[in-house]
């Protein structure tokens, strides 16, 4: 069965973005061609992306063109949005039902891109099969957390990789 995977970069203190949504702190850890932190390999294993509306807005802001034109892309928002290229907006009323439907289809894995608010909803519904977390050796002090609220789930560590840059990649399985 296809898996639902979080692949994300996190500060030492568990934030995925600064308070204002900024991700400048990631600039010191670029994804050069010879060290993309496994991104190309990972991306080749997915055919569907899921993202919260704030992450979607950032993706559009940061890229000249939408970066995932060849995958099926769902953007979660509680309010109706006008149609946009490459994405389907969904209100998140029945996240478990949507994921059950997607997983029942043939295909590659599903990437839960983020951000933290959407990650939290998926964790609450226990829908995350795997997480590939890149821990950046930077303390932000405040920001938008990888997960928020009081949800508690346990994961098994399956693999750890240390990059020359000091970034640690940890693969967790539920
Ligand atoms: N470090 C990394 O690798 C990484 C990865 C991804 C994102 N980010 C950053 O994370 C930040 C965004 O994270 P975030 O936690 O603030 O926001 P987010 O999860 O990306 O988006 C939040 C929005 O998504 C919608 N949403 C969330 N949960 C929903 C649900 N259960 N049902 C329906 N809609 C739902 C709502 O949109 P509406 O308000 O429209 O209803 C909500 O305001 C950005 O700065 C982004 O750049 C960093």
TrEMBL record:
One of its GO terms (biological process) is riboflavin biosynthetic process. It comes from the Bacteria. GO terms for molecular function: 5-amino-6-(5-phosphoribosylamino)uracil reductase activity. Gene3D superfamilies: Dihydrofolate Reductase, subunit A (3.40.430.10). Residues 2-167 form the Bacterial bifunctional deaminase-reductase C-terminal domain. This is Dihydrofolate reductase. It comes from Chitinophaga flava.
